[in-house]
Structure to design on (139 residues):
C-alpha cells in the first residue's frame, strides 16, 4: 500500500495499517515529512508551500504543534528534524520503506542516518501527543 503517512497525517493508523500488518502487505508511505512541514516547521517558506494545495491542508496550527514537537526531540538528539520524523516512521512495524522524494544531498543523508536513530518511548510519546485527527486525504 502506498498511503500518505507521517507524524502530521496518521489517519491510516485507524484501519489500513493494522490491516496491512495482519495481511502481510507492505506499506511504502509518501510524504514522510508532510510536504516539508515536519522538516521546516513554521520558520521556512518554500516554493512548494506557496503553490501546493496539499501543503495548506498540512499547515494548520495542529500540524505545526506536531512540527514543534519534532523540532524539540531533534534538538535533544542534536539532529535535524527531518531525521527524527523519518526515524519515527521507520519505527512503525507496518512501514516497509518511505518514499523520501530527495532533491538535495542532505535529504539522502538524513534518510540514511534516520535508520540508525533510536527514539526512546518518551521521544515517541512527545512526538505523537500533539496529533489531532484530520479529514481524510486521498481516495
Amino acid at each position: 500500500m502506498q498511503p500518505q503517512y507521517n507524524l502530521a497525517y496518521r489517519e491510516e493508523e485507524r484501519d489500513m495499517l493494522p490491516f496491512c500488518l495482519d495481511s502481510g502487505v507492505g506499506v511504502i508511505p509518501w510524504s514522510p515529512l508532510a510536504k516539508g512541514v515536519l522538516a521546516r516547521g513554521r520558520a521556512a517558506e518554500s516554493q512548494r508551500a506557496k503553490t501546493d494545495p496539499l501543503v495548506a491542508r498540512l499547515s494548520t496550527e495542529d500540524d505545526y504543534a506536531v512540527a514543534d514537537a519534532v523540532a524539540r526531540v531533534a534538538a535533544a538528539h542534536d539532529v535535524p528534524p527531518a531525521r527524527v520524523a523519518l526515524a519515527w516512521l521507520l519505527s512503525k512495524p507496518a512501514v516497509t520503506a518511505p518514499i523520501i522524494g530527495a532533491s538535495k544531498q542532505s535529504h539522502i543523508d538524513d534518510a540514511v542516518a534516520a535508520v540508525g536513530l533510536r527514539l526512546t518511548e518518551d521521544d515517541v510519546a512527545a512526538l505523537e501527543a500533539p496529533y489531532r485527527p484530520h479529514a481524510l486525504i486521498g481516495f
